[in-house]
Amino acid sequence: MALYFIGIALIFGLGYAIFDHQRLKRISVERGDPNICEYARSFDYRQVDTKIMREVWNEVQLCLGNFEGKPFPIKADDLFEDTYKMDSDDLDEVYWAVADRLGIDTESPESNPYFDQVTSVKNLVMFLQNQPKVANV
User: Does residue 17 or residue 66 have the better pLDDT?
Assistant: First the structure.
């Protein structure tokens, strides 16, 4: 009896995964080719580190994958939960990967003005921008 419930749960899980993949594929096709210039214009490049913008772009694309042989076209206003259906664990992985790669301090995030406000790609960039850099030892 338990195997039937497990089987049904697996079928629903697989169905949801296929549906979500098709949803992201549709968004990707509608947007066309990835355009980092359009993404970058969403920020004030004089005030925001362009390395952070680029690394967040790259890392989010890695999480979302490729559709029809092209990376997902990220937009700064995309919402992690609503647009990507990305859970907090996946968002944490993006955050840690970018922070590690760029030497951004991950201690005391509570003092960051964007703490508990990271809902979009732009907010993640701004959160990382407002974290201090790790001091060279």
Answer: 66
Q: Are 61 and 71 in contact (CB under 8 A)?
A: yes
For 66, which DSSP code? E
How far is it between the farthest Cα atoms of the chain?
A: 62
DSSP 20: H
Domain layout of the chain by residue ranges: 2-129
Instruction: Classify residue 16 as exposed, middle or buried by CB count within 10 Å of its CB (0-12, 13-18, 19+).
Output: exposed
CA gap 19, 64 in Å, rounded: 14
- The tens digit of pLDDT for each residue in 4-35 reads 888 888 888 888 878 888 888 899 889 988 89
Helix (H, G, I), strand (E, B) or coil at 132: coil
Say whether pTM exceeds 0.70.
yes
Task: With beta carbons less than 8 A apart as the criterion, state whether 70 and 100 touch.
Answer: no
- Can you list the positions of beta strands (E) in 54-128? 66-67, 70-71
